Amino acid sequence: MDIIKNPSEIEKKSMEIIRPYVENIFKNEDEIKVASRIIHAAGDVDYAKIIRIHNDAILSAKKAITNGKNVYTDVEMVRTGINKKRLSVYGGKVFCKIADENVADNAKKFGITRSIAAMRAFGEELNESVVAIGNAPTALFEVLRLIEEENISPAVIIGIPVGFVGAAESKAALMKNGKIPFITVEGTKGGSPIAVAAFNAILYQI
Question: Catalytic site residue 54?
Answer without folding.
Answer: no
